[in-house]
Amino acid sequence: MLVVTTENIPGKKYEVLGEVFGVTTQSKNFVRNIGAGLKNIVGGEIKDYTKMLHEARMVAIERMKQEATEKGADAIVMMRFDSGSILQDMQSVVAYGTAVKFIED
Q: What cystine linkages occur within this chain?
């Protein structure tokens, strides 16, 4: 399924089917917390957290695409991400956009 961050897809006309979302919440594990604590002292990228957030974004995108497929969509336009912390040890990621169905001229 085509997913774009733009409002339009060049050369395509479509009808809007509605909003679609994909959500995931990841928890930090004990080992990651130890490594993050050490990095916090010396500075630098916390690669385990970066990997966790990347994986969370991919899961959120796949869930959003699944919802769009269930609506009969051909593509998703205006895709965006939102994220936030839940308590101290959890990170929530949302992918959202507008599901569209291509129409012929």
A: none
